Amino acid sequence: MKNGDHLFLVDGSGFIFRAFHAIPPLNRKSDGLPVNAVSGFCNMLWKLLKDARSTDVGVTPTHFAVIFDYSSKTFRNELYDQYKANRTAPPDDLIPQFGLIRHATRAFNLPCIEKEGYEADDLIATYARLAEEAGADVTIISSDKDLMQLVTSKVSMYDSMKDKQIAIPEVVEKWGVTPDKMIDLQAMTGDSTDNIPGIPGIGPKTAAQLLQEFGDLDTLLARADEIKQQKRRENIIANREQALLSRQLVTLKTDTPLDTPLDELQLEPQDGPRLIAFLKAMEFNALTRRVAEACNCDASAIEPAFVPVEWGTDAHGPDLDIVAGRPLTDDALSAAQAAGTLLPDASPDAPTPAALAKARAAFFSGRPFDRSAYVTIRDLATLDLWLAAARETGLVGFAAATTTADAMQAELCGFSLAIADNAKDPAGASIRAAYVPMQHRTGDGDLLGGGLAEGQIPIGESLARLRQLVEDPSILKVAQNLKFDYLVLKRHGMAIQSFDDAMLISYALDAGAAAHGIDSLSERWLAHKPIALKDVAGSGKGAQSFDLVDIDRATAFVAEDADITLRLWHVLKPRLAAEGLTTVYERLERPLVPVLARMEERGITIDRQVLSRLSGELGQGAAALEDEIYQLAGERFTIGSPKQLGDILFGKMGLPGGAKTKTGQWSTSAQVLEDLAAEGVPLPRKIVDWRQLTKLKSTYTDALPGYVHPQTRRVHTCYSLASTTTGRLSSTEPNLQNIPIRTGEGRKIRAAFIASPGHKLVSADYSQIELRVLAHVADIPQLRQAFAEGIDIHAMTASEMFGVPVEGMPAEVRRRAKAINFGIIYGISAFGLANQLSIERSEAGDYIKRYFERFPGIRDYMESTKAFARENGYVETIFGRRAHYPEIRSSNPSVRAFNERAAINAPIQGSAADIIRRAMIKMEPALEAGKLSARMLLQVHDELVFEVEETEVERTLPVIVEVMENAAMPALAMKVPLKVDARAADNWDEAH
């Protein structure tokens, strides 16, 4: 190596753990082998090499090596037997990946370096020193503070995850000292991760101040009696030897014996076929394609490599290799059991996610809960111990306790934690749970509810610790309905990093088959009935705010919540991989949580005056209809009473089609009234119109002003991710999904939703997305061609069915074709179509028959979908989401028919829902990349609503349209183009 060369040293062990925690659980499809760390490692390394070889980057390495820890035992354990003694064994899912990552490194044609008795950091320090002495530059690919002592004018660091260079100024900015003083700073502060003692009570800021004052650790220790603060002075003097020991432990060896000389680290060209063979063995299809393209190789002509899998306790554990995809032999199994290294919970015959899921479900079903063992954390020292345990396991059940169920107004009054001593194998290890009260009040003393209850950590300190927990990406937080917690914490200035939601995992697995609330899930999977909120906080008029609940009772309730959630995660998470639904959860569910939370927080402005005027108009319209109804009925009665209305229609007037409910009353459902109206009876039509007006008035024009937030002065709806079978979102408080858009009154309500001053509302709406999805799924050539050419799809359908030219087509003919197009999606019957078009049922039946004759692929799709649903109990969207219809095999013909119609529609409606979910997830990064300040406010089925600065409207519209029209990519290339109409205006109605 010579002057002008550049050495890249990759902290391989750091890469492994960052990849493992950054990438969601991923299993090889062929055999269930966990490979998320291998995937993350390969992608990170490929990007690093690709960028390093790019002339645009400006730094091109001549030499390159990946450095690993050999094992957990090094010379430092001889200096201090408690060094790293607090570390637990690696997660079980990670153990087999250590060896695979070393195979990956060699497949990348890179030196794979480790040394028994030494840490990777020592090897990096030695190579860096030698390269610097040779006049070369060095870049260490890591963000580990332990390596910052090596930074000089020739040696820098690079955090590849954050794309951040770390040179001398960055070290000073972060720690307050130059790199040459980092050893002394770490010796003073210690390191809880490595169990380095340091000097108790000395943190980084204090250490930096002392080093600035005294120069170095030796001088500080020699002149410790000059320190003014008594406690600090006594602490330093008492822990002098401990500080010197800590300095030995943190000092990296720059003279480590090297098995691979520096000059042998020269960066060699990529061996494309060798790397592709490894990637194909791992089944990393996307990376395989990228590598093949970059290396100009034909991946299809390259066979997967033979890659052994090591199931040992660490990278150099017992030699228990299995060929990828093959079970252990009997001899190997016996050895594994004797060594204690068999994958936990897995069946010996099939160490797969399916076996793990089955074993977890059996283990946790009926496992007792001991509420008396739940802990109330009342002091900071105890809380720190729990947080340290959470960091060690990397997994914690979490639940927030709040004063109200409204996330936009809720105040935190506490939080709970649940920890399994062995996060990946809870069998045999109890799950501990605790509650941290923060702002519980006595309820005595004054109108505000009295003072704080005793025995609580001061709010500032408890919030600071809570921030450390929720913002630590190395700890996976598991919650139930996490969007609520996310929004509450966000309003308190915290952004959750690294999370799972047990409710959404259940939803991805069992939409339509079961409920996903914590009570239902607990009873179904854990055979445990949780404490009811009403039993803790009361109900009805006697209900009290949760901050007034006695702390002991609150502990039992909230700690149990976290305990249940963590158990559910252990049971449900393996099923995602076992049932092939990981992608649904990771791509369509979990990423949407922060997106929706931010949308809810933003809210939207309403014009109260518009609503007030409209409320008056609706009231007048309803009053006029009431008079007409009384005249037609021949008497006055309570129109809103189903009993009185039924007696008028079927008793007094003797209208046909009457049917009684289980209570013995006449049914006056909307369908009954619509059927009567279709027969030409005027009274039912007036009743339907009256119901619509009064519902709009009560639900929207009268109610919306009451939803205006007292501080933001905006309306904040709450979205539900797991309330429909098909993946569609719903909204409540208020429900903005059901405002009618095809009536004048509904459009007037939308006109009351306005942009804030200096802004416009942008409405972006998918055009006929469900018909486009149908054309894609059923592969209908005529529909595909029409959409591709931008032809009026309803006119085209009418032309195909009725032989009428598109040019000059009568509006009535197009309307009938439109009704059939949309009706087919929902499995409309001849009876339903006849009512909709006001024609004879036989004529409607002829229309449907003719439709299927012209588009036979649609009938084929419907029949094959019903058959699939009957066999499997579910149907799938084009992105793999499952909608379950367990009653599709019901012996009741009407129940069976309903489920068949729903099953036909679900892949269409669900795929459309998945597409807009993908668009929402991609939207904010796209707007940010375009340096646009637009904010996504609402989602209403196929429509997104934004608030955009007036000066940015022209630049924003194309970005929104592009993201929405390409939302299915790259996962899926639609056979028909998606079309989005986007407009800007002062209110929602004008924008739509």
Automatic annotation (TrEMBL):
<dbReference type="InterPro" id="IPR020046">
    <property type="entry name" value="5-3_exonucl_a-hlix_arch_N"/>
</dbReference>
<dbReference type="GO" id="GO:0006302">
    <property type="term" value="P:double-strand break repair"/>
</dbReference>
<comment type="similarity">
    <text>Belongs to the DNA polymerase type-A family.</text>
</comment>
<dbReference type="InterPro" id="IPR008918">
    <property type="entry name" value="HhH2"/>
</dbReference>
<dbReference type="InterPro" id="IPR019760">
    <property type="entry name" value="DNA-dir_DNA_pol_A_CS"/>
</dbReference>
<keyword id="KW-0234">DNA repair</keyword>
<keyword id="KW-0227">DNA damage</keyword>
<keyword id="KW-0548">Nucleotidyltransferase</keyword>
<dbReference type="InterPro" id="IPR002421">
    <property type="entry name" value="5-3_exonuclease"/>
</dbReference>
<dbReference type="GO" id="GO:0008409">
    <property type="term" value="F:5'-3' exonuclease activity"/>
</dbReference>
<dbReference type="Pfam" id="PF01612">
    <property type="entry name" value="DNA_pol_A_exo1"/>
</dbReference>
<dbReference type="GO" id="GO:0003887">
    <property type="term" value="F:DNA-directed DNA polymerase activity"/>
</dbReference>
<keyword id="KW-0238">DNA-binding</keyword>
<feature type="domain" description="5'-3' exonuclease">
    <location>
        <begin position="5"/>
        <end position="268"/>
    </location>
</feature>
<dbReference type="Pfam" id="PF02739">
    <property type="entry name" value="5_3_exonuc_N"/>
</dbReference>
<keyword id="KW-0235">DNA replication</keyword>
<dbReference type="Pfam" id="PF01367">
    <property type="entry name" value="5_3_exonuc"/>
</dbReference>
<dbReference type="InterPro" id="IPR020045">
    <property type="entry name" value="DNA_polI_H3TH"/>
</dbReference>
<dbReference type="InterPro" id="IPR002298">
    <property type="entry name" value="DNA_polymerase_A"/>
</dbReference>
<dbReference type="InterPro" id="IPR018320">
    <property type="entry name" value="DNA_polymerase_1"/>
</dbReference>
<dbReference type="InterPro" id="IPR001098">
    <property type="entry name" value="DNA-dir_DNA_pol_A_palm_dom"/>
</dbReference>
<dbReference type="Pfam" id="PF00476">
    <property type="entry name" value="DNA_pol_A"/>
</dbReference>
<dbReference type="GO" id="GO:0006261">
    <property type="term" value="P:DNA-templated DNA replication"/>
</dbReference>
<keyword id="KW-0378">Hydrolase</keyword>
<protein>
    <recommendedName>
        <fullName>DNA polymerase I</fullName>
        <ecNumber>2.7.7.7</ecNumber>
    </recommendedName>
</protein>
<dbReference type="GO" id="GO:0008408">
    <property type="term" value="F:3'-5' exonuclease activity"/>
</dbReference>
<dbReference type="InterPro" id="IPR043502">
    <property type="entry name" value="DNA/RNA_pol_sf"/>
</dbReference>
<dbReference type="InterPro" id="IPR012337">
    <property type="entry name" value="RNaseH-like_sf"/>
</dbReference>
<keyword id="KW-0808">Transferase</keyword>
<keyword id="KW-0269">Exonuclease</keyword>
<keyword id="KW-0540">Nuclease</keyword>
<feature type="domain" description="DNA-directed DNA polymerase family A palm">
    <location>
        <begin position="746"/>
        <end position="952"/>
    </location>
</feature>
<dbReference type="InterPro" id="IPR002562">
    <property type="entry name" value="3'-5'_exonuclease_dom"/>
</dbReference>
<comment type="subunit">
    <text>Single-chain monomer with multiple functions.</text>
</comment>
<dbReference type="InterPro" id="IPR029060">
    <property type="entry name" value="PIN-like_dom_sf"/>
</dbReference>
<dbReference type="InterPro" id="IPR036279">
    <property type="entry name" value="5-3_exonuclease_C_sf"/>
</dbReference>
<dbReference type="GO" id="GO:0003677">
    <property type="term" value="F:DNA binding"/>
</dbReference>
<dbReference type="InterPro" id="IPR036397">
    <property type="entry name" value="RNaseH_sf"/>
</dbReference>
<comment type="function">
    <text>In addition to polymerase activity, this DNA polymerase exhibits 3'-5' and 5'-3' exonuclease activity.</text>
</comment>
<feature type="domain" description="3'-5' exonuclease">
    <location>
        <begin position="374"/>
        <end position="577"/>
    </location>
</feature>
<keyword id="KW-0239">DNA-directed DNA polymerase</keyword>
